[in-house]
Write a structure and sequence with these properties.
By secondary structure, this protein is α+β, with helices and mostly antiparallel strands. It is about 35% helix and about 30% strand. The longest helix is centred in the N-terminal third of the chain and has 24 residues.
């Protein structure tokens, strides 16, 4: 696996970053309790970034698995707009709406809720500089898709990467 981009960029998490990480973990556990009681349908949007035959995976501070930049779709927000917003928030990357193509849309049971996820993808001609905040996102790595599908990856994302491999 490619080295973590955090290590390449040299920035270490600060004590304030670690406090935010703790806050994210507590908030996520509270959300899971809510989901266990309410069993809602949630809406999310992720972006698979491809460059040089590799895909960017991120790891959030509050879950043990890899994902892609993305998150919840806000009320009244389109999934595509959420994907673009989350891309900026999580890895500091701005791309145009036209660059995104829908790779997969699925609803599945996950953590006591029905998770409706739209996964977009974009092929980048140059490898962008990725910035993680060390608060919500604590790691970002570029990996070959063959490696990615063998990691602990968010299940719909794994399906989208496998679909990409099959093409």
């Amino acid at each position: 696996m490619t080295a973590s981009l955090d290590a390449v960029q040299g920035r270490q998490a600060t004590p304030l970053d670690r406090t935010f990480q703790l806050g994210f973990k507590v908030a996520y556990r509270l959300l899971r309790t809510y989901w266990r009681v309410r069993r809602p349908t949630t809406h999310g949007a992720l972006v698979l970034l491809w460059n040089g035959g590799e895909v960017l995976l991120v790891r959030n501070s509050y879950v043990p698995y890899y994902s892609a930049p993305g998150g919840f779709v806000k009320r009244g927000e389109e999934a595509r707009a959420a994907a673009l917003r989350e891309l900026v928030e999580e890895v500091g990357l701005r791309i145009s709406d036209e660059q995104l193509s829908l790779a997969l849309e699925v609803t599945f049971p996950w953590e006591f809720k029905q998770d409706h996820v739209k996964i977009f993808e974009v092929q980048l001609s140059e490898r962008p500089l990725i910035h993680v905040d060390h608060r919500e996102v604590i790691e970002a790595v570029w990996v070959k898709p063959e490696v990615a599908v063998n990691l602990n990856v968010f299940p719909p994302l794994k399906a989208a990467i496998q679909q990409h491999l099959a093409v």
